[in-house]
Amino acid sequence: MADHERDRAPTSEHEGVREREPEAVEGLTRRRALQVLAAGAAGAAALSTGACADGTDSGVPDAEDAASFAGATRGGNPRAAGTPTDPDMVSPVVWWDLVLTEDELATLASLCDVIIPEDEHSPGAAALGAHAFIDEWVSAPYDGNREDLTLVRGGLVWLDIESAERFGGGFTELTLEQKHAICDDICWAANAAPEYRVAARFFDRVRDLTSTAFWTTAEGMADLGFVGNRPMPRFDGPPPEVLERLGLA
User: Fold this and answer.
1) Domain limits for position 178
2) What's the pTM?
């Protein structure tokens, strides 16, 4: 991978691949996945313009269509349909259902480990629950989070379709080298080929969320060397090596 990623090896890989129909993964065609990705990247304003001025189909799903695709949940929490509210930290309860499916979470976990794999200093992102953090994030009933749900869910479908077309299996079934071959094409939006620019927006968002999840854990902070505020019995001033480096010793 390029500058944005560390040289790590994932915690586990699935070497075997199986034949899969590349045109319809998770009930979505490649073209449809790209449409949903484009809608999520454009934001809520773009979702309300499903038809062109001359009455022809723009190819971008309208708001109702995109919301239907993004809104399916796997639970039945009656509180999830309520007005968005900040969580009660004194008596915490789950206020919304988690919407990503087990297959989506598996693909997402595999991608998180490509972005931040395990090394000698700390576990990989998936081992620290980065994919679970992203699931909770995109499941939240706020406008920005719902836009991320459309982008992430469409991107995961695209990732499996692209994997099947290139290598004959889903993303979780690919070797590390095969995963990198796909991710290298979408890891930097400014350098992505035209056909990969929409998918690059998906990767960029997942990378941001993965980094947020990883480096806010105790293990992630230790990986950075961040110690935060600590009580000290006394303060002896700057260490000698710091003063020497500044030419003040």
Assistant:
1) 30-223
2) 0.63
